[in-house]
Amino acid sequence: MAQPLLEVQNLNIAFDTERGQIRPVRDVSLAIYPGQTVAVVGESGCGKSVTALSVLRLIPQPPGKVLGGEIILEGRDLLKLPEHEMRTVRGKDIAMIFQEPMTSLNPVYTIGDQIAEAVVLHQRVGRREAVQIAEQSLREVGIADPGRRLNEYPHQMSGGMRQRVMIAMALSCKPKLLIADEPTTALDVTIQAQILELLRKLQREQGMAIMLITHDLGVVAENADVVAVMYASRVVEFAKVEGLFDHPKHPYTEGLFRAVPKLGAHSERLETIPGTVPNPAKFPPGCKFHPRCPRTRELAARARAEDTIEIASAGEHFRVLRRCQTDEPQLREVAPMHGAACHQIAEYDRAAILIPRLADKREVVPVAIVDGDVEAIVKQELAT
Amino acid sequence: MSEEATVSYAQPHSVEQDARAPLPPGEPLVEVRELRTHFPIRKGVLARIVGHVKAVDGVTFDIAPGKTLGLVGESGCGKTTVGRTMLRLIPATSGAVRYRGRDFFAYRGEELRRLRRHMQIVFQDPVSSLNPRMTVGNIIGEPIEVHGIARGKAKREMVAGLLQRVGLDPSYGLRYPHEFSGGQRQRIGIARALALAPDFIVCDEPVSALDVSIQSQILNLLDDLQRERNIAYLFIAHNLAVVEHFSDDVAVMYLGRIVEKASSRELYRNPKHPYTMALLSAVPEPDPRPRRQRIVLKGEVPSPSNPPTGCPFHPRCPLTRQAASDANASDTVEITSAGERFRVLSVCKNDCPPLEQKQGEPGHVAACWVTK
Amino acid sequence: MTSTTHDDAQSLRPPVQPGAYDPATAVGASPPRSLWRDAWGRIRQSRRAMFCVVVLLAYVLVGLIGFTGVLSNETVVDGATIPGLIDRTIGKSHQPPSWTHPEDGGISPSYWLGLDFMGRSVFWRLVYGTRVALTVALLASIIEIVIGFTLGAVSGYFGGIVDALITWLFSTVASVPWILLMISFAYVLKNKTVWGYELTGVPSIVLALGLTTWVGLCRLIRGEVLKHRDRDYVLAARAIGLGHGRIVFRHILPNVFHLVIINFALGLAAFVHAEVILSFLGLGVTEVPSWGRMIDDAKLELLKGVWWPLLAATVMIFVFSLAVNLFGDTLRDALDPRLRGTD
């Protein structure tokens, strides 16, 4: 098996806040292989963005600090690099695009200046050549008339166009890894489809790896090779995308899948996960999901009273299994190449700790059509 | 229209009296007719008006009591403006909104205030929609007090009841909005809207700012309230799956107009407008082996200050391009869009298509020259 | 292990509030936290700010001595009228500071800061000057806030022609150099009587300062109200059917009031300085001692080696300004939600 491009091992990050220390990332491990897309999925405050930022060492310190762990990019531990070497890693080896393209672009420079600046910094080329590279990268991300666009300012462009510029800027130095933090969340669906298609195309052509941070399960399903589900600062499930969607193991992942309305499903009522997304300042003890977990509740109803414990959550009182309330489960390999952190999976006690490394690629790559008999295709596809 | 206004002036209390009365069957609760909201664009030192952003440009629909009309479209299509104009939070340029047959736009002062009781709104942003300096109890209690429904202890009891109904602990009335999570704040916003016992609520993207696991809680809550209290919703959203799940009928907006309207099942099964087709196809499926091919539209939504001539969708429309390649050259015209030159049907470029009945369920209307 | 479990179990059972686990919020454990309460908690955490509060309270106490009249009231002893402590000649002119009374040798505050050119106690004049400074600063602030806040709120909330008029007014006032404006105000108001009340001295300074300084606050409030006017919570209030008055006063005002407080705190020092400058220019307080007048009186004496009246007044102003500014900065950090990440 090939070596991973990036390997995060037991990363622990803490932030000092007014009300004490919080731990937005706890024991997070994941690996990304060349040309692979690894999605990190989770809800607000689950630590997915902090994990991404810490790979680039962009966590403000203080208040943030790394308590432990390694981030290894091609054999080098990024956490140990001096700052000036880290600067060459950023942009050249690893590039990042953000959710809000307006705030990530500097409003007082033309986009040509901004892309060229990055190129000059990392590629040792002259100014004129840098502008040419900038123009070429704009063309690659599908911007019409790139020569004219180079001289425009960010506010003259629409949200989708700005996200394309951000991608052009990130890719101008041909990074090995692109970290995309909610790249389409601020965009409309039709523009989202364009941007995701563009990322897939660029990945095919340039072979870069993508770390895709998102909360949208649809985006995950269509783009990821491997998925890490995060909840309360930890990875609670790690699997190939097909494995995860076919047989989710963790009750949180399961609940998420059921709670999202599906187009054309015509369900009368949505299933819900009770309670609220936990805030790192106030994590519950034991398994961080137990106050919201339907599985432990159901099992507790049938278990002996001494194995259960009564808790209160979201205005309700109910019993959960004592073990869920006291022990935090580890990520274990509960099925071949499928890790989950839940005591109440049959295989959990026998399974070994999982080191989250999966070099697999997805089976089916979504196909986009731009022209052709649209109406007929829509009819046919929707009929099935 | 003006006649009705006179009638309502003559009988200022009649609104109160028959607001609770059941409507005759088949009668809509809310009717919107040819609603237009244009914002002036000012330029220069003298702030002269140089043009208009036609945020809403002739929108017509009905909502039956206890039913939900979903309004979908991308950012800038005017869906939010429709909701706000209907409640007179933004002045309308022209058109009419009728509530139980009464012209809502004709009311003034005290009568308007009384009528507002029946039409409420839930906002998208759970942070900015609650006053950070007021306690939750005051936020929910204020409408009750201002409309003279209850005071003192009775009011507090009503507030506690509302909090309980939306799934919050009654003791939370003493707390401030910033102490709550997004989903809880949205519940508070719903409780405020419910305080006046309205029978129509505009839900302006009520779940799009919430976490995935919280969205379904709020949708189910809105659903329960509708059944329980026979509330009609205008459900504004950009997420098609959510709209399809939640609505009885769905209207699709593009550049200030409704381009297609049908029952939610019909719209999904049998889309007639190419924009609806593209929207449906663009929603990523939560399935790693997608069966559908993706239609990726070219270009971006044009600015509503300078919309294209004719059918506003023609520069991005895959159907007219395809139809043009089969048609006589004399019926087509070449245009440039998103850096490309191609031919479209002349009729699409020159004339705006009307909303008309298409093949399918009765009431399935779409504005397209190409589809039948 | 077992015991901790037991503890946890205890803590999770009723009577613990339901929602003790709603982890996204602090709900359940702590008492309700209004933003004001949060801000006060934050100020109390800052030792520097609390020290400043103590210093400022000391200034207020000193100022109150001036109000009691013990320093200024004339007394009649044996049929002869003796002026109050601030105007009484109690020794030779330019007597240097000493802890003790020059004749009987007892401790006497009157001599602590020496005597001025007329043999008057610098100490007592300084104490009385505190009263003048605080009066001027407070009253001028009130005028500033009333005008600035009202015009700013009206202008921002209603917009349109009202906004255009008010913007024009404050742009005009702001385009005249403030010192010039203040001098002319002071000249116009000098020796005028309104309803039989003489506008000389403190009232003239208060009016001149109040009427010239509202522009900054007005602009600030206008901008802030403009921002809040389109927030969803204001739309929600309109959807409920609230009137403009109630929306402005019950909803928007509490959300911009922290700016008034910050402005007030930081403005105090500016007003004290302005009083000093006006008095120094001879346009301000003339009949009673003020810090500005003391500096004015003492400026020429410095050449004669008489440093104490000047130093005393300057230190008094410096400490006051420093305390106000340090406290104001903490106050701003504590109150301004922009600096604390909207939660």
Q: What radius of gyration of chain A results from the CA coordinates?
A: 22 Å
User: What is the tally of helical segments of chain C?
Assistant: 11
How much is the average pLDDT of chain C? Answer: 78
Give the number of DSSP strands of chain C.
Answer: 4
- Helix-strand string of chain C: HHHEEHHHEEHHHHH
Give the oligomeric state of the chains in this entry, treating copies of one chain as homo and distinct chains as hetero: heterotrimer
Explain the overall architecture.
The complex is a heterotrimer of chains A (384), B (372) and C (343). With 384 residues, chain A is of the alpha/beta class. Chain A contains 14 helices and 15 strands. Chain A has helices at 48-55, 83-92, 101-104, 111-123, 127-140, 146-149, 159-171, 189-206, 217-223, 241-246, 251-259, 294-302, 322-326, 374-383; strands at 6-17, 20-32, 37-41, 64-73, 76-77, 94-97, 177-181, 209-214, 226-231, 234-240, 308-313, 316-321, 332-335, 338-340, 368-369. In chain A, the strands form three sheets. Chain A has an eight-stranded mixed β-sheet with strand order 6-7-8-3-9-10-14-13, sandwiched between helices. Chain A has a four-stranded antiparallel β-sheet with strand order 2-1-4-5, covered by helices on one side. In chain A, strand 11 and strand 12 form a beta hairpin. In chain A, helix 4 crosses helix 5 and helix 5 (127-140) crosses helix 7. The two termini of chain A are 39 Å apart. By secondary structure, chain B is an alpha/beta fold. Chain B is 33% helix and 24% strand. Chain B has helices at residues 2-10, 14-19, 79-86, 109-116, 136-146, 152-165, 182-194, 212-229, 240-246, 264-269, 274-282, 318-326, 346-350; strands at residues 30-43, 48-63, 68-72, 94-99, 102-103, 119-122, 200-204, 232-237, 249-254, 257-263, 294-295, 332-337, 340-345, 356-357, 365-366. Chain B has an eight-stranded mixed β-sheet with strand order 6-7-8-3-9-10-15-14, sandwiched between helices. Chain B has a four-stranded antiparallel β-sheet with strand order 2-1-4-5. Chain B has a two-stranded antiparallel ribbon with strand order 12-13. In chain B, a hairpin with a 2-residue loop joins strand 9 and strand 10 (257-263). In chain B, helix 6 packs across helix 7. The longest helix of chain B is centred in the middle third of the chain and has 18 residues, at 212-229. With 343 residues, chain C is mostly helical. Chain C has eleven helices and four strands, in the order H-H-H-E-E-H-H-H-E-E-H-H-H-H-H. Chain C is elongated. The model of chain C is unreliable at 1-28 and 339-343 (pLDDT under 50). The chains are: A alpha/beta (384), B alpha/beta (372), C mainly alpha (343). Chains in contact: A-B, A-C, B-C. The interface between B and C is large, with 43 and 31 residues.
